[in-house]
Amino acid sequence: MSIKVFSRRSAAFTIIEMAIAMIISSIVISFCYYMYLFINGFAEKYRTRNRAIDEYYLFSSTLQRDVDRAELIKDTVDSSRFELIGDENRVLTGDENRVSYFFGQNFVVRENAGEQDTFRIGVAIESVGFVHDSLNLVEKVVVQVDLDTGRVHFLVNKQYSAEQIMKAEEYKKDEQIN
Are 155 and 142 within 8 A, CB to CB? Predict the structure, then answer.
């Protein structure tokens, strides 16, 4: 009886082949990871910019709507706060006839009926136009908004009738008495 020895090599990868495969796969994985970080950072900048633009549109449309509904717009001495006053027939919003806007450097606070809305945008009042200086009645406001894409200027304008100006004079007399 004879013993047969098979010296057949099994089909497997060598250590060198495995090392090369691991190096190639680590290069591909690290490339994919850095592409993911790059795309994610780009998407985050895009979302941040769009949030600021959405906040700007919400602020400008809310302010314009309140101005359109207001009977009178009164100003403070430093133009950091505006008060929009409705009449008994036209309620601005909610149960109150007064809406006030306070302009900070990086925000605007809108207050109505004890509720506050905050718009988180960089805002500056460029100029305020009055019907007559003694009435403290605002006719137009030019607002500058700083966005990531640049500065945006918009004009809020209020047309007054003679009746509304006469009511403003009555408000002023009432305030002087109180």
Answer: yes
Taken as a whole, the chain contains a residue count of: 178
Assess if residue 2 is contained within a domain: no
Of the pLDDT bands very low, low, confident and very high (cuts 50, 70, 90), residue 96 is low
Smallest CA-to-CA distance from 161 within 136, 131, 135 is with 131
Pairing of strands 72-75, 150-157: unpaired
What predicted TM-score, i.e. pTM, was given to this entire model?
A: 0.69
Domain span at residue 154?
Answer: 31-177
Q: Is 75 contained in some domain? A: yes
* Mean pLDDT, residues 164-170 taken together: 77
**DSSP characters for 149-169?**
TEEEEEEEE----HHHHHHHH
Structure-model confidence comparison of residues 43 and 170, the more confident one: 43
